[in-house]
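Record now logged underneath.
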Amino acid sequence: MQDAPGVRLANGMRAEVRRDRFTSSGYELVVDGTPQSHVDLDDPTHLFFEYVARMGHVIDQLADPGAPITALHLGAGALTLPRYIATTRPGSRQQVIEIEPELVELVRSELPLPSGASIRVRYGDARETLGRLPAGLRGTVDLLVVDVFAGARTPAHVTSVEFYTECAALLAPGGVLLANIADGQGAAFARGQAATLGLVFADTAVLGEAQVLKGRRFGNFVLVGSPAALPLEWIPRLLAGGPHPAQVLHGAELRDWVAGAPVVTDQTAVASPPPNRSVFQLPRNG
């Protein structure tokens, strides 16, 4: 079998673009054996991974439907959400921060961006680069997506209250932060992240598949934070949007779920727990 197009990243991991086995126009970005992104070149609005689809549902609720927004993405992946926003909200201004230039070049080469998309990429560590963004961006970002992974794990330095405070300073008064967190048995890491966001933001919510939220299996949690109250009418829309079975934790339900989990600081932060390799079960090319 022919090797998939790929590159060796500075961190030593290998990134590959593989054809999706289930869709004719779909591709996966795989890093160190972990599927990190999915792109449908024929339809950028097709969000294949369930946690990305949940993020897309939240993005659809921002401002007026179809209206352009200002978005900042920490972590490039295959630029799935920037493509989605460029297609569903033409005229949006978007910036992406990514530490691996080789990854972005691979994605741009193998998975070209939609024509007319206004997406600027800045290279560097997500947290360090936040401090170097133009001062005029502070207080203007409608959407800030935190999807930073080193292989299958979220690095510790982008999980703390200090980090999220830096993110919050960039948001517009009604802006929203979306964070993708992966966790497994007991969901202790995810609950700690929810507690941390709850200290920084005026309102928070957590979206996920019911069994994942209960800590019964490994999966992705979508954390939502905003300096303003999240509109309650979002909740039935997000539930209806799926993927099913979907659950949204907010208000008293979220407080009960967090259940006293400690707020994460720079001194106590740790990387997210690694998944068992069997979670992904990807065949190796070669």
About this structure: Confidence is low (pLDDT under 50) at residues 279-286.
